[in-house]
Write a structure and sequence with these properties.
Elements (H helix, E strand, L loop, with lengths): L1 E6 L1 H12 L10 E7 L18 H4 L4 E4 L4 E3 L6 E4 L3 E2 L12 E7 L8 E11 L8 E2 L4 E4 L2
Parallel strand pairs: 1-10
Antiparallel strand pairs: 1-8, 2-3, 2-7, 4-5, 5-10, 6-9, 7-8
Amino acid sequence: MATIAGFTNVFEDLVLKHFFTSTAYTPPSTSLYVGLSSTVPTEETGTLNNVTEPTLAVSDYARVEVAMATGWTVSATAPTQVVNASDIVFPICTGSDYPASIVAVCIFDDSLANNGRLITAASCTATAIAVNQQAKILATKLKLTLT
């Protein structure tokens, strides 16, 4: 199970400005994107300078789009938690093995491999993905809780 490790400073700034100033935060229109990293990123920035995603050219990796309206379940009890409503299934690794074990899951506001990280959730165990395998986060196993 992956649990929240932190918001990026960029996302924290957006949320605080939204609630405490007249600067409105406009969320992504319909989806968030879940990605994998072989390093545990720090919260210092919303860019990818400290995220190590597998490369598309090497392993057919791609972030997975998760609809905001139907892809997440928000609990009705304290502490409020958000979990993935269904399995998040990454493409089958076809080119070659992912170059390193996956140790973190990140949530992005876009599908592009250059920016947009909002949240990092650290994984419990390092997971290697080889050719003809695919990464999968089972329903309810990506749990986000603010404490």
